Amino acid sequence: MESGCRPRFPLLRESLAVSKRSVIANYVQSLLAVLLGNAAYYILLPSLPQAAHHKLFQIDLGLLVDFWFCLVAYGLIRTAQWWRRRQ
After folding, report:
1. Domain ranges in the chain?
2. Which residues make Cβ contacts (< 8 Å) with residue 45, sequence separation at least 6?
């Protein structure tokens, strides 16, 4: 057996390395998507059908609708970022 400080799986370790800046940027984008998605959900809640209203501490259609709003917000944020980098 070899003794030393070499990583056990060097290729895997290198491929998993991520800069701190990109982790923070992803966190901020995700947080913004959740905040915007929930804001849109609660603003549109009065016009949604009763089945799409979320009940606290339950897994229901309202939770899925709320998640969908957050997912759409995340997609819009990433699309805007892509458009800005493309130009």
Report:
1. 20-86
2. 53
